[in-house]
């Protein structure tokens, strides 16, 4: 999501065309706690 936002801004595009903005200006990132129990689902093969 942040890459899409960055590219849109760098190319002079409207960022809302690439990502969902809250109140027209905020981007919310979902964070997940990585533990030893769920580490495998975040690792690339």
TrEMBL record:
Name under which the protein is recorded: Uncharacterized protein
Q: Which organism is it from?
A: bioreactor metagenome
């Amino acid at each position: 999501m942040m890459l899409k936002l960055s590219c849109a801004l760098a190319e002079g595009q409207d960022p809302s065309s690439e990502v969902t903005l809250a109140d027209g200006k905020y981007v919310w990132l979902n964070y997940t706690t990585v533990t030893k129990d769920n580490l495998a689902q975040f690792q690339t093969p």
